[in-house]
Amino acid sequence: MKLTIKKTEKLEGEILIPSSKSHTIRAVVFASLAEGTSKIIRPLESEDTLAAYDACRTLGAEITKEGDAWIVKGFDKKPKNPGKVLDMKNSGTSLRLISSVVALGDFEVELDGDESLRTRPMQPLLTALNKLGAEALSVKNNGKCPIKIKGPLIGGKTEVSGISSQFVSSLLIISPLLKLGSTIEVIGVNEAPYINVTLHWMDEQKIKYEKKDDLTYFKIKGNQQYTHFEKIIPADWSSAAFPICAAVITNSNVLVKGLDINDVQGDKGIINILMKMGANITIEKDGIRVKGGSLKGYMIDLNSMPDALPALSVLACFAEGETILRNVSQARIKETDRIKAMATELRKMGADVEEFPDGMIIRKSKLKGVKVRGYKDHRIVMALSLAGLASEGKTQITTAEAINVTFPSFVDSMKKLGAQLELT
Predict the structure, then answer these.
(1) 199, 125 in Cβ contact below 8 A?
(2) Quick check: 253 and 289 in contact, CB under 8 A?
(3) What is the pLDDT averaged over residues 75-91?
(4) Rounded CA separation 349/121 (Å)
């Protein structure tokens, strides 16, 4: 599908942010591993979360939909043999977390996904699982999908690269359920807030563990248990970055609703970044009010919130001086190489962008509407749509269906604010 955008002078109104992808996927994984029946209220239903939903059902969880909730009867840390390849679609989070879940069983499981998922590294997690007792390998011996994993995991000592927080979260979730206690050494911690999201879930489950404050070391007691729960899924700060940045660059007045400023999601840091750049943002009773502002660039460390890079790279085009996005090399191993993708497509639109290994330099630029690639990446498509709103002429983005990965209502919600968007 293609998304066509025309310059939009001003946005006005309210927008409700969808529920968190990160929380939703963790919720269905924890509920499936638990004993008893859990209730997940207001989960995000998107391509990524449904990949985890379907995988957990295939592994033996009984999951039904009731109104705005998922009801999950867990398999109590005993997954069943799926007897088929688990298709994780385009969901890196689901792939990484489910890889450890299947390793609980005394059988071999193959996991695979779409073309994009097959480009994402898995070897650090496979190696770590092998040290805990599994037999885990890459079928093509390239450290990527398709992969085969055979358990059961036992526990013990392992280490894992922290280039992706998902490797760490995967090991943390499964370790309390193993016969032996486990220690995990993390080499090079990235995306620390996402690890803290996982630890928050473990804390709610009263799991016993020790950790270093810098998240480089964990010691987890074995033979523990997850129990059923009822939880409302909070809104997704990563998704919120797009309408927030759209309101800023169009000098609009938009109320962004559904967000919890006290949630553990790292991407809530977008508020402080934008305010430091000069955006007019206030926290109100009913949501976050965004009124634009006169922007000035500065150096931003995005290690803890790499998903904000696409939106911020667009916003930086409208900030005086230079904006430097740094310490975010992990953005290169997402659905696509997001640093390269954003630099390439923004240059087509007239942006002054310089790419370097762990980030970008963006200078204030006047953008023009052109045809650009979406790279089958939801965050690239949404970010480029923001650029289109503030560009002269018409912008057309390919592979716009990727939006459904995290923000299925994005186009309709933005149109209600007055954005000139059309999906064809």
Answers:
(1) no
(2) yes
(3) 97
(4) 31
Q: 165-174 vs 92-102: helix axis angle to the nearest 10?
A: 30
Edge-first strand listing for the sheet containing 322-326:
299-301, 322-326, 359-363, 352-356
Q: What confidence score (pLDDT) does residue 24 get?
A: 98
Percent of the chain at pLDDT above 70? Answer: 100
- 213 catalytically annotated: no
Among the options 76, 267, 307, 377, which is catalytic? Answer: 307
SS (H, E, C) 397-409: ECCHHHHHHCCCC
pLDDT of residue 237: 97
State the Cα torsion 260-266-270-275 to the nearest 10°. 80
The answer to whether the beta carbons of residues 103 and 62 sit under 8 Å apart is: no
> To the nearest whole number, what is the mean pLDDT of the chain?
97
Model's pTM, two decimal places? 0.96
Residue ranges and CATH numbers for the domains of the chain are: 3-18+236-423 (3.65.10.10), 21-221 (3.65.10.10)
